[in-house]
Write a structure and sequence with these properties.
Strands 1-2-3-4 form a 4-stranded antiparallel beta sheet. Strand 2 and strand 3 form a beta hairpin. The chain has 8 helices and 4 strands. It is elongated, with a radius of gyration of 24 Å. The termini are far apart. Helix 7 crosses helix 8. The chain folds into 3 domains: about 40 residues; about 55 residues, no CATH class; about 40 residues. The chain is about 45% helix and about 15% strand. It is α+β, with helices and mostly antiparallel strands.
């Protein structure tokens, strides 16, 4: 029988071994209770921590995904509630707003609007007309011109103009 090795206090990436899990073995693996730098406590097979295949509770993967998508220019186009939640997590961890704005290629003003829930994510390409019409009805009172409303929804001015006229919504044609 192999000797017991005490991993208490040893660091593996963002994880620090605290104590042996209860039960300590499951399917031939020795599990340890680990504390991540983000504060989450998890139980993982110690063998995978030692060989480097597990480095965090999962937060590291989320951050890499968020940062890589932002650098490739994908994140801003698909900035949604999940992305906003991830941005909030990054802010809680101490990332600066300037760094986050650089990653997402957005202005600080836009970031603040998203964080205050004032802005909704843009509609995707190929959305159903009903979704566009619902967005026009919901957002029309907030905008003064057809162009502002069309830009906000992400469609051309013409469908916005036609739909507003048919529903009797009054907006200015030019500022």
């Amino acid at each position: 029988m192999p000797k017991f090795k005490d991993y208490s206090g040893l660091r593996y990436g963002r994880l620090v071994a605290i104590e042996l899990s209860d039960p300590p073995r499951l399917d031939g693996e020795t599990f340890w209770i680990l504390k991540c730098d983000c504060g989450k406590i998890v139980s993982k097979p110690i063998r995978h921590c030692v060989d480097g295949s597990i480095k965090s509770c999962g937060c590291l993967l989320e951050e890499h995904y968020l940062i890589n998508n932002a650098r490739m220019g994908k994140a801003h186009k698909s900035l949604n509630r999940t992305s906003i939640a991830q941005i909030r997590k990054l802010l809680e961890k101490g990332e600066s707003k300037k760094e986050i704005c650089d990653w997402f290629s957005i202005s600080r003003n836009t970031l603040n609007k998203y964080l205050r829930n004032e802005a909704e994510p843009r509609l995707r390409k190929g959305v159903l007309p009903q979704e566009v019409f619902r967005a026009i009805e919901r957002l029309a009172p907030k905008y003064q011109t057809y162009k502002e409303l069309a830009d906000r929804i992400g469609v051309s001015i013409y469908p916005v103009y036609i739909y507003c006229k048919s529903k009797g919504l009054k907006l200015k044609e030019k500022k």
